[in-house]
Structures are given as structure tokens and as C-alpha cells.
Amino acid sequence: MSYVSIVGAEAAPTSNPEVLSMLPSHLFVSSTDGALYDTRVPSWHHKRPLRYNFHRTSSQVHNAADVKAALRSGAFTEWGCYPLYFLTADGEALSFESVRANLAEVLGAFNAADRHNGWRVVGVEINHEDGELICCHSNKRIPSAYAD
Fold first, then answer.
1. Where is the domain boundary, 18, 35, 53?
2. Other C-beta atoms within 10 Å of 139: how many?
């Protein structure tokens, strides 16, 4: 099993192929650390990446870059295809679709004085068994891994 995703190659079904297919063919995204590399640079694999945290999801969101990396990574985990959702500072759930549609509000919340304004994302979680988890913005159901 390969631990890297090569742009231009067929994407694994658990990755977000839309994001990877939009990149030029000389860019390489590592699935081990989520970094973006330029393969035109000699010895590119020994140098710093163009961007750290380009295509990765982690459970804690500290800044706008973490939100954008999670969106690029997709709404399902890479291993197991478990459905993901964003968790806000006030304890609500947001779907990936709602975060994409309201990205200006979500990113602006990192600069807002009110850290609990409803758009402040603090994490990305897996919805294992909650068959009734609803996005607080769209009122649409967020898929679950086992309750369906």
C-alpha cells in the first residue's frame, strides 16, 4: 500500500480527488504529512515543502489554515471512509458543505473578538453512531458511520 498520493495518478477512493486533480502535474501531495511539494526543484524531497498542512485533517483546529486543509482533505477520513463534521466553539456541528458555503464567516471568526460567535471552528470529528446529528446551519443530516 502506498503512503503518498501523486497528483495526476488515480486518487484513492478515500481522498478528495477534486482538489488533487486541479493541481498542476509537477506538484506532489504527501498523504503522510499533508505537505505540498514542487517536483521541478532538484532534490525536492529533501527540501522544505511549498506548504505544510495542505491536505490534512486533524481533530483540533487552531487557525484558518487548518480549516482549509480539512476542506481540501474531504468530508471522509482517509482510512475507513468515516464521515467527518466540523465542531464549533459553542458545541454545534457544521457540515463540510455549510463550511464551504460560508467560508468567509468561518475564516473571519478566527479574527473576531467574540470567540463563540457560532462560526468559530475548533475541531473536526468523526460521526460514528449519531444518526440524528444535524448541521446547525443547513439543518441537514450529517451522515454517520454505523447508525445508517
1. 53
2. 8
Looking at the fold, whether 62 and 123 belong to one and the same domain comes out as yes
**Cα distance between residue 15 and residue 53, in whole Å:** 15
Give the residue from 144, 145, 57, 138 showing the smallest Cα distance to 92: 138
Tell me the pTM.
0.74
- Together in a domain, 36 and 101: no
Q: Are 136 and 121 in contact (CB under 8 A)?
A: no
Q: Could you tell me the pLDDT band of residue 55, with boundaries at 50, 70 and 90?
A: confident
Tell me the pLDDT of the chain averaged across its residues: 83
Phi, psi for residue 53 in degrees, rounded to 5 = 55, 40
Section 82-102 average pLDDT: 95
The total number of structural domains in the chain stands at 2
- Residue 34: what residue type? G
Domain span at residue 45? 1-53
Which DSSP helix (H) or strand (E) runs through 28? strand 27-29
CA 36 – CA 14 distance, rounded (Å): 18
